[in-house]
Amino acid sequence: MMITARGSGQESSPPSAKWYCRRNAPMRVLSIILVTAVCLGVAVGKADTVPKKTIALFTPEQIQSARHRLAHEEPARQAVQDVLQMAQQWVQFSDDYLRETIPPPQVPRAFNISFSGCPVCGRETFKYGNYGFETPLEKPWKVICPNCKSEFPSNDFGAFLKSGMKDRSLLTGDYPDDGWGWKKPGEEKKYWFVAYYCHWHWMRHIIPAVHNLARAYLLTGDSRYAHKALVMLCRIADYYPDMDHNKQSRYATEFQPSYTGKIVNAIWETGVATNLAEAVDFVWDAIDNDTELQRALGKDAEAIRQHLYRNLLMEFIKAIKEERISGNYGMHQKTLLTTAIVSQDPELLKWSVDYLLNNTGDRYTHEGLQFALVNLFFREGMGHESAPGYHFIWNQEVARICNYLLRADVNLFGHPTVKRLFYYPFEMSAAKGFTPTIGDSGGVDISRIDLPAWMAEIAYRQYGDPLFYPLLPKPQNNAGRAYTQFSDLFQPDFPPAPSAQPNTSRYERSRLLGDYGLAILRGGQGENQRALTLYYGWAGGGHGHYDRLNIELFAFGKKLLPDLGYPQFAADDPEPPGWTQHTVSHCTVMVDAQRQANLARGRLHRFAQSAWVQFVDASAESVYPDKASLYRRQTAMIDLPAADAFYVVDVFHVQGGRQHHYSLHLPGTEVVFQGIAFSEPRNGTLAGDEVPFGKMYDDPQRANATSGFHGYTGSGFAFLTDPQEAQSDRPWLASWRQDDIRLRIHWLPTQRTHFIACNGYPKGNRANPPLKYLIAHTQTEGAEPLRSTFVTVIEAARSSPLIRNVRLFPLAPDSADTVAIEVSHRYGRDVVFLSLTPEKQTELPDGIACSAAFAVMRFDNEGKLRQAFVTGGEASCGTWRLHAHDLKGNVEQVLPDKHEVVVNLWGNIGGEDLLHRLILFRAGEHQAEYEIFRAAREGKRWRLWLGDYEFLRGRALVGEIDEAQRTVRTPTVLALDAVAPVQGMAVSNEARTAWWRLKSTRRGEVMLDGDAPLTSLRADADGDGRAVLLVWDFGAGDNVLIPGQADYRR
User: Are 561 and 553 in contact (CB under 8 A)?
Assistant: First the structure.
């Protein structure tokens, strides 16, 4: 039955039975603590035999199949060649060596030696990477600088360790290290040679050795591999309970006392524990027959099993609950589920599955999937960390978890967000081979994220979409399966090839990731593919940069406006907050020589696309909340008639503050200037002749600090070198060339402007080739806030440039909110119009008039109009006129399970005209942006299919209700108000029979507006004993706007 009560219009039927699970996993949240105590107390402490009896992760049939493939198929042998080679190396070592090579807990660990680099050659060493120091197995406790080849420490730490770390007469030479670092005179922080070796000895040698010895045993049945793996596992089990990264590490000692973990930090420990749990599983069956091990340890087989079970498997579970094994979302969940399966304890497995699905109220990274997939993922299929390199970790780990959950008869693959996890690399693809470099991800040369073959195989088996089949490696003779990694040998043959061809058109055109906040403008085909991305999304979920409205440009297989990506360190160092994560290093605008104040989401105003023109309009005043009343970018990508040429029109409006810096940067420094005379490069940095590189000169608290850099909000100018300066109010040109690729930036100042050309270094590392930064600087001495309009035309082409001249057109009436540009090129001329006030008509030369948000008109060399595109209004030239007014309406009904919405639209339009158009839903302060994929008229209404995305944006456990205050308490982590404005969002009970509007969310409290009694929230539609409230992206009664667009071709 459909309901029509106030604020409703959604289907009244409850969500899919058991929330996309074949099996209901009932659990009362309040009982989690009690169940945890049972699992961690009873299972760890009991003295009888352990529940684990045999190998759990693979069946005997899978093991037999893998061994058969290894014996008979050369591709299978090649896939595990590295596994067997490492196992063969380590099987040669004596048992005594294997025990002694494993460091005891009292030896500290450090993932890097010092943020200062090498004691001899300094930060030059970082050109070999953050972790470039070598840790040779044949030179215990010695680290070697990859740049200057110096060895550290100078003393024999092995001898010092054998003395119980007490005989300090052994600390000899110029660089002695007792495990807790060596201090260079004049520097506050230490160099941690021994701790670095210890950390990477575990990560490069010990853990891979154990893991691969166990894998080799599973593949071959050779007991020698199992014996060596067990020797190492038993010694690790001796030490593991006493491992405490919080007390035994460089980072916790010098920087963050709460930097917890076990052997290594809590994030990386997820991989350590998972690999060790797998190793225990793979060699479990070999314990009974390993009499040599039993004699050496003085324990029988059962005692060895108990030792491994309690000191490793149960310690992993305990550390997960204590958050000493805790990574990005999905990492520790995968470790938990792997360990529970390996344990073969049915109660532990039951608890683990319930915990993974239903836990709520802890830190957000520990939220159960039933809540996290709604609350912590953007609907396009990425976690709330803004950086692709990080949020794709969420995708991979959740994919593994969902695959493992099938063993417990829990199927989450039907959930829309789970499905989108697999489509994510296609969704995020810009031009050919590129993923946008957003936040701490990628770099100036690399930023590609591909769907790994193992995920493609899961997706193809689950969804049958031909899109995934080409990503599977091709098997020999096109039969059976291909092998790319160890686990492939245990998997069944590939399913048959699809009969249909993959449909890639959805990902080859411009598209909007409205929840994530990314516009991707695409054009061109094959080797001429190009894309411009504009990021306006929320970056506060982790590893984000202060870069709202940043643009990147990709074309011809290269990054033409490259973002810097990952910093030198994602840690407490001046470079990330002062440069790579700072506003100044991005292609955006800085106000008052200060970075953006926060990581808040911007707002989309318009997104339009055609075969030859792409346009986006977005703002982000929220990032300068006390300064900017206007901070808005309008950007268009326009194809030229030649397939290998196009240009971008970029207009950035800013009002507020006393000075503005608009910045673009090119891929290199070999730049030729025309129409402007820059000064010679001066010494020092852009911050001043006497200001050294990297100094936080404009922050007294941090100018001479050695830690605590991440609160820096100054200019970042000390990271820009070789500044050249000029003043101009006339157009000028900057040109860059590499091989046959030409990039030219036409600068069109709207007022007299101070221009700066300088060098900026990727990762803030002067060992890296610099990029040329071009900055337009405006400043006011008056009392009124500064108003600036920055205008550039960015031209890209293969071979010869096609644009002959670019100029600003005079306007009548003149307005700072409106820009018109004439672009003259080989094929004629284009007139490009952009306005923040589309309701106002503007007269241009040659009989042209516009009252639109954006328009472009193309005239041939004879002056005849050949093409035009308009969005949000109309354009005319003489008697010719093109209309593209926005459509408005409201939502009548929402059908979330069908991904459909029924709307009333005021205006005449055909269904085909709505395809791939943007639709904006607005209620109160909230706005949601979607693409229309199908449209069908039903009388006076339109039924729109918005893609296979989740409309649900919040799911929270219902706690205490206060009818008088209209509030609901919840333990669930709701990130809604952090991600975007929430006032006005539709809210329902679990059964969708009662509806409200969201007024606000605070930590632990939801305030609602509406007539329905809040006690209706107690309705438990699926009978699992837990009532939840649901927050929707849009609801019945919301206003609707579909930006108008029209394309003309003669």
Answer: yes
Q: Which of the listed residues 344, 363, 393 is the one where a domain comes to its end?
A: 344
* Rounded Cα gap, residues 319 and 345, in angstroms: 18
618-633 burial code (b ≥16 CB/10 A, e <16): bbbbbbbeebbebbbb
Is 319 a member of any domain? yes
pLDDT score of 215: 99
Residue 47 scores a pLDDT above 90: no
Count of positions (residues) in the chain? 1050
Query: How deeply is 382 buried, as exposed, middle or buried, from its count of CB atoms within 10 A (0-12, 13-18, 19+)?
Result: buried
Domain boundary among 344, 366, 394: 344
Are the beta carbons of 1038 and 922 closer than 8 angstroms?
Answer: yes
Question: Residue 823's closest CA among 811, 846, 805, 844?
Answer: 805
Backbone angles phi, psi at 112, to 5 degrees: -145, 165
- 756 and 647 together in one domain: yes
CA distance 188 to 249: 17
Q: Which residues are CB-contacts of 256 (< 8 A; sequence separation ≥ 6)?
A: 572
- List pLDDT tens digits, range 193-212: 999 999 999 999 999 999 99
Q: The domain spanning residue 902 has which CATH number?
A: 2.40.30
Residue 749 pLDDT more than 70?
Answer: yes
Same domain, 310 and 288: yes
What distance in Å separates the CA atoms of residue 359 and residue 371, rounded to the nearest whole number?
8
How would DSSP label each residue in 77-93? HHHTHHHHHHHHHHHTS
List b or e across 505-517, with b for residues whose CB sees 16 or more CB atoms inside 10 angstroms.
eebbbbbbbbbbb
Mean pLDDT to the nearest integer, 125-152? 96
Residue 787 has pLDDT above 80, yes or no: yes
Q: State which residues form the domain around 322.
A: 52-104+199-344
Instruction: Please give the DSSP secondary-structure letter assigned to residue 65.
Output: H
Q: Is residue 133 part of a domain?
A: yes
Per-chain mean pLDDT for the chain: 93
Q: Is 578 in the same domain as 617?
A: yes
pLDDT of residue 723: 98
Domains identified in the chain, total number = 4
Cα distances (angstroms) measured from residue 495 to each of 68, 466, 535: 20, 11, 39
Q: How confident is the model at residue 705 (pLDDT cuts 50, 70, 90)?
A: confident
Terminus-to-terminus CA distance in the chain, angstroms?
A: 51
Examine residue 959 and state whether it is found in any structural domain, yes or no: no
Residue for token pair 């076990």: 262
Three-state secondary structure of 709-743? HHHCCCCCHHHEEEEEEEEECCCEEEEEEECCEEE
Residue 732: beta bridge partners?
Answer: 747
Question: Tokens for 695?
Answer: 């100094």
For residue 13, what pLDDT is reported?
35
Average pLDDT over residues 31-44: 42
Is the residue at 395 inside a domain? no
pTM of the model: 0.93
Residue 1002 φ/ψ, nearest 5 degrees: -120, 170
Average pLDDT over residues 776-788: 95
Do residues 712 and 742 share a domain? yes
- Same domain (yes/no): 606, 754: yes
Any long-range contacts for 494-497 (C-beta under 8 Å, 24+ apart)?
A: 494/457, 495/460, 495/461, 497/469
- Average pLDDT for 930-954: 96
Contact of 459 with 409, CB cutoff 8 Å: no
Residues with Cβ within 8 Å of 60's Cβ and at least 6 positions away in sequence, in order, are none
Same-domain pairing of 647 and 601: yes
Which residue intervals of 205-345 are DSSP H helices?
Answer: 207-220, 223-239, 250-254, 266-283, 291-297, 301-308, 314-321, 331-343
The DSSP string of 237-268 is: HHHGGG--TTTSBHHHHHT-TT--BSSSBHHH
Residues 893 and 751 in one domain: no
Shared-domain flag, residues 126 and 243: no
